Amino acid sequence: MKYPYKTKMMERLLALIAEEKTGPAEDLSQRMFVSVPTLNRYISELRELGNIIEYSRTRQTYFLTKK
Fold this sequence. Notes:
Helix content: 55-70%
Low-confidence stretches: none
Mean pLDDT: 93
Structural class: alpha+beta
Order of helices and strands: HHHEE
Strand order of the largest sheet: 1-2
CATH superfamily: Winged helix-like DNA-binding domain superfamily/Winged helix DNA-binding domain
Number of domains: 1
Number of strands: 2
C-alpha cells in the first residue's frame, strides 16, 4: 500500500472516531473499503500514536477519550 493512501485512510478513520460516527467494526470496514483485520490494524496504529480509542457497545461507535 502506498504511504500517502494509508495516511489519508488513517486521517479519515480518526475523523470518524472523533465524530463518534463509526458504527460497529464490520460496518465501518465496509464504509472504508478495507477488511476488518485491516481496520483493527489502523486502530492499533492510531493508538500507538497516542490516541486513546475506545468502543461503546451501547452506542455502537468508537470514540476518543482524554488522557
